[in-house]
């Protein structure tokens, strides 16, 4: 059975290509997008904070708007659906509390040692990692903790706002990859796009300044002309180093 699963996954990975022109005569059922988004939220993410949002663009009116926002590229022009992957590190307080509530709901009586550690993790550590302020005091505190704790020992080097951004974008990108593999498994195609006006996309979605666009994924039934050449990759021995 494991071999069958391995072969099935191999087929999905080999099938998934960034297709830049879709067949507009073939529709992608809403059920395919729904199922793929349900799979995407199961993706691994940092501390289960799930600091992401996925905006499913399916109406003809909004798709027409996004053609322009995506700079007129063919993947956006011909897509049956678009999904905008967004990072929301500004939701850290709400999501930390959600995790705390989940832990407490599963408790019977006083918290065990592991439950106490989990509660402290979300109640103490997450505020240290994600809190920000105008004066930058939170960043200075993180830098101080990193310096002291990491002076003679390995320690997570996490201090500034850039570290927060990298962390939430990594998690969001993992969800986008799960989504694209799911679409491939359902017999359709995708094209992840970085060519878009992020400011105008945020405005169209009515997002706050703290939110950021990770990527926009176009979905449809791919065409031969939508594949721009072979999928060339560097040799394995140039990028993989076994130690």
TrEMBL record:
Residues 14-221 form the Nitroreductase domain. SUPFAM superfamilies: FMN-dependent nitroreductase-like. PANTHER family: NAD(P)H NITROREDUCTASE YDGI-RELATED, NADH DEHYDROGENASE_NAD(P)H NITROREDUCTASE XCC3605-RELATED. Belongs to the nitroreductase family. This is Nitroreductase family protein. It comes from Aquirufa beregesia. Keywords: Oxidoreductase. Pfam families: Nitroreductase. InterPro entries: Nitroreductase (IPR029479), Nitroreductase-like (IPR000415). The keyword Disulfide bond does not apply. It comes from the Bacteria.
């Amino acid at each position: 059975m494991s071999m069958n699963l391995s072969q099935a996954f191999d087929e999905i990975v080999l099938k998934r290509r960034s297709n830049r022109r879709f067949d507009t005569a073939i529709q992608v059922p809403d059920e395919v997008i729904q199922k793929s988004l349900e799979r995407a939220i199961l993706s691994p993410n940092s501390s289960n904070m799930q600091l992401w949002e996925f905006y499913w663009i399916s109406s003809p009116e909004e798709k027409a708007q996004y053609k322009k926002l995506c700079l007129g590229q063919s993947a956006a022009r011909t897509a049956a659906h678009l999904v905008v992957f967004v990072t929301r590190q500004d939701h850290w307080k709400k999501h930390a509390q959600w995790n705390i509530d989940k832990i407490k709901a599963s408790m019977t009586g006083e918290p065990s040692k592991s439950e106490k550690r989990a509660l402290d993790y979300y109640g103490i550590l997450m505020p240290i990692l994600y809190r920000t302020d105008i004066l930058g005091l939170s960043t200075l505190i993180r830098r101080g903790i990193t310096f002291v704790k990491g002076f003679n020992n390995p320690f997570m080097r996490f201090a500034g706002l850039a570290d927060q951004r990298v962390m939430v974008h990594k998690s969001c990108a993992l969800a986008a990859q799960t989504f694209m593999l799911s679409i491939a498994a359902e017999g359709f195609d995708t094209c992840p796009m970085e060519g878009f006006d992020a400011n105008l996309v945020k405005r169209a979605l009515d997002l706050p300044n703290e939110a950021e666009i990770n990527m926009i994924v176009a979905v449809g039934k791919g065409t031969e002309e939508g594949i721009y050449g072979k999928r060339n990759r560097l040799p394995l021995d140039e990028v993989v180093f076994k130690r």
